[in-house]
Design brief:
Keywords: Coiled coil. The protein is of the alpha+beta class. It has a five-stranded antiparallel sheet, with helices on one face. The N and C termini lie far apart (150 Å). It is elongated, with a radius of gyration of 53 Å. It has eleven helices and eight strands.
C-alpha cells in the first residue's frame, strides 16, 4: 500500500452555535426552573453570638446604664442648683448696684464743682502781655489768610451762578470787562444756616481772587459808593475780615463814637490797631491795657471798654440779621492801613 502523507492535526475553530435565539413566543411558553423554598426565604437575623456579643456583656452594659440613670439629678436637685445660682447672682448684682451708686454720687459732686467753678471768677495767673501777643498774632494770621477775599452782601439767595454773577458785578464797578469767572478761584455763601424766611437778609458771598492786585483794584473802585445797584439788588462790598477783628471793632465802639463826637478822624490798622493823628503825631491804640493812656492823650473822658482780646464771639441773633458795618468815609474815619499791599 502506498503510504500517504501524514496529516498534521491542529486545533480547529469551535463550531459556531447555529441555534437561533428563542423568539418571544418560545420564551413565553418555555417553563421556568422552580426555586426551592430555602432559596426564596429571606436571610435569618444574625444572632448575638454571630455579632460578637455575649449574654454576660449585655448584662454588664445594662447595669452600667441603670447606674448612670440613678446618678442623674432629680427635680429637687435641679431646683436646689437654680436656687444657689440665683442667690449668687443677687449678691453680685447687689454689689454692683452699690458701686454704681457711689460712682453716681461722685459724678454729681464733680458736676456741681464744675458749675461753681464756671460761675465764680477765676484769677488769671498768665502773663497778660504774652496772652495779648498770642491773640494779636492769631488775629493777624487769620486776616492774612483772607487777604485775597472780598465779601459781597445783598445778593439774593436765588442766585446760584455765583462766579458769573460776581464777575458781572465787578465789571460794572470797574467800568470795563476786566474780570472773568476764571479770575475767581472760589465763590461760596457764608457758612451759616440758610435763611428760612424770604424777608430775612441773604447770606454773604465770599469770593477768592487768584490775583491780589486785581482784588485790591476792584476794592478801591468799590469804595466810591456804599451801595451798588446790580441785578435789581443793592450790593455792598467789604474786605473779608476775621471774626476776632470784627468783635474787637464792635467792643471799641464807645471810643470811635467819642472820636466822631469830638470831630477827630481815625483809622483802623492791621494787626488790630486804632490810630489818630494829633499834632502831626500818630497816637495808636493796640491792646486793652493802652486804653486809659490813649484817652488821656486825646483829652477824652474815661470810657468803659471791655477786653476785646477774647475768643468768645457773639452768636448770631435769633432773627438771623447780620451786623451792619458803618458806611465808608463817614467824615471822621480814614481808610484802614495795613490791609493792602503792606501785608505780605
Amino acid at each position: 500500500m502506498v503510504k500517504g502523507k501524514s496529516r498534521t492535526t491542529t486545533a480547529g475553530t469551535p463550531k459556531a452555535n447555529t441555534r437561533a435565539a428563542p423568539t418571544q413566543a418560545e420564551a413565553f411558553f418555555t417553563p421556568r426552573a422552580q426555586r426551592t423554598p430555602r432559596e426564596e426565604s429571606p436571610k435569618m437575623a444574625t444572632s448575638p453570638a454571630e455579632l460578637g456579643f455575649s449574654l454576660p456583656e449585655l448584662g454588664a452594659a445594662t447595669r452600667r446604664i441603670e447606674r448612670s440613670l440613678a446618678n442623674m439629678p432629680t427635680k429637687a436637685d435641679i431646683r436646689e442648683i437654680v436656687s444657689e445660682v440665683r442667690e449668687a447672682l443677687q449678691r453680685e448684682i447687689s454689689g454692683l448696684r452699690t458701686e454704681v451708686e457711689q460712682v453716681e454720687a461722685r459724678v454729681k459732686g464733680l458736676e456741681q464743682a464744675a458749675e461753681q467753678a464756671a460761675l465764680s471768677p477765676q484769677p488769671d495767673n498768665g502773663d497778660p502781655a504774652v496772652s495779648s501777643a498770642i491773640w494779636r498774632r492769631l488775629d493777624d494770621l487769620d486776616n492774612r489768610s483772607r487777604r485775597h477775599n472780598l465779601r459781597i452782601r445783598g445778593v439774593p439767595e436765588q442766585e446760584t451762578a455765583l462766579r458769573r454773577y460776581q464777575s458781572s458785578l465787578f465789571n460794572t464797578i470797574v467800568g470795563s470787562k476786566t474780570v472773568s469767572p476764571a479770575d475767581l478761584a472760589r465763590a461760596h455763601r457764608a457758612l451759616r444756616p440758610q435763611p428760612d424766611s424770604p424777608n430775612a437778609p441773604p447770606r454773604d458771598i465770599v469770593c477768592y481772587f487768584t490775583d491780589f492786585a486785581l482784588k485790591d483794584h476792584i476794592y478801591i473802585k468799590a469804595r466810591a459808593k456804599s451801595y451798588w445797584a446790580h441785578g435789581g439788588s443793592d450790593i455792598q462790598i467789604f474786605n473779608d475780615i476775621s471774626p476776632s477783628t470784627l468783635q474787637a471793632r464792635r467792643l471799641l465802639r464807645p471810643i470811635t463814637q467819642a472820636l466822631r463826637t469830638a470831630g477827630i478822624a481815625y483809622r483802623w490798622g492791621f494787626p488790630l490797631s486804632l490810630s489818630v493823628k494829633q499834632d502831626d503825631i500818630w497816637v495808636t491804640l493796640r491792646t486793652p491795657g493802652e486804653v486809659p493812656l490813649f484817652l488821656r492823650r486825646l483829652n477824652l473822658p474815661e470810657l468803659p471798654v471791655p477786653d476785646w482780646e477774647t475768643y468768645e464771639f457773639r452768636p448770631p441773633g435769633p432773627s438771623g440779621a447780620l451786623p451792619q458795618r458803618r458806611q465808608r468815609f463817614s467824615g471822621h474815619q480814614l481808610p484802614s492801613v495795613g490791609a493792602g499791599n503792606s501785608k505780605n
